[in-house]
Amino acid sequence: MMLTPASPGPICSSLMACKIKVDLGARSYEIRVGEGVLAQVGALCRELELGPSALVVSDEHVNPLYGPAVESSLRAAGFQVGRVAVPAGESSKAEARLFRLYDEALDRGLDRRAFVVALGGGVVGDLAGYFAASYLRGIRYVQVPTSLLAMVDSSVGGKTGINLPRGKNLVGAFHQPVLVAADITTLRSLPPREYAAGLAEVVKYGVIRDAAFFARLEANLAGLRSGEPALLEDVIAHCCRIKAEVVRLDERERSLRAILNFGHTLGHALEQVTGYGTYLHGEAVSLGMAFAARLSTRLAGLPADEAERIENLLRALGLPVDRPDLDWSAARRAMTLDKKTQDRVLKFVLADRIGAARPGVEAPDAVLEEVWTEGRQPKKR
């Protein structure tokens, strides 16, 4: 079942990738979504008059799978190309890896005309994007996401950054890419757990912005779980269109864009407290969304049956929703470092109803702990 977005939507056909424009004036760019996009990266970069040198940043899992194809495409378009791979996983979003990229770029003699290609998932996109934002005070970069989570979320919008030991994404910059090229064939190589984690961000868009989209996700569970290509292309394009519109209205997250963080306040805290890697980002966000949905029934008027629908959809897609076996005080301390916290008062993104969310809702500690305590714990196996 194809998901028909409201007009204006992405331009899609069976003969070409979907095209979605992120309209930011001089910083505008296109998102391309479809099969075979990987082979077009070089030609698309040539159309943008990038060059003459490119550094492809990937990770040790993705690089052997797709690095040669991207490098070949860039070389065929006339670019000089270098490739570097960082270890896979959240631990690479760190100062040490960032400084190794600086050394790599300097060793290769990359100047301000060079550009970066971020080939991989969200970790690579964030790290390579921040490298591009800060190297020589900023060079251009291209996002080539290979995970579902990166395609629908982290590759779009220009948020880049690294983690600190005390919290996630606490160092970074807004630095828009010049192109996002998402080839859905790369999703076939994702482990099932990684693929399911990406679906958490897909569900988020329905909760915060599009009730009809949420309902269509509920109606297409089998196709989503199996990764049916036509459905996936349409879903990814729809998510990108929603994010592009939100970013257009609020590029630097001064108000509306904060709704994209639904579920992330607790999600980021869980990642940090449990040690990066215990939960995949999408899994932590799923737990955070279930918590935020329950909190929304207390503080934002979300009907209880709609909170249940959110949890049921996440669970049906293979995502965790039950409260982890974790001391509340540890999670609460970690949430204090959330970027939306003001004067140590937590500000949550909550849903008034499915399809409508609002940021900046103060959440009293007593209510937070009650909602946490009331959450179901997973059954012992």
Key attributes of the depicted protein:
381 residues; alpha/beta; Rossmann fold; Dehydroquinate synthase-like, alpha domain; eight-stranded mixed β-sheet; two-stranded antiparallel sheet; 44% helix; disordered N terminus
Report on this model:
α6 (192-209) runs parallel beside α11 (281-299) and α10 (264-273) crosses α11 (281-299). The chain is globular. The chain folds into two domains: 35-189, Rossmann fold (3-Layer(aba) Sandwich), CATH 3.40.50; 192-374, Dehydroquinate synthase-like - alpha domain (Dehydroquinate synthase-like, alpha domain, Up-down Bundle), CATH 1.20.1090. It has helices at residues 41-47, 62-76, 95-107, 122-134, 148-154, 192-209, 211-219, 221-226, 229-249, 264-273, 281-299, 304-316, 328-335, 365-374, and strands at 11-13, 16-22, 29-34, 53-59, 80-86, 115-120, 140-145, 159-164, 167-174, 179-183, 347-353, 356-362. It is α/β, with parallel strands linked by helices. Residues 1-11 have low confidence and may be disordered. A hairpin with a 6-residue loop joins β2 and β3.
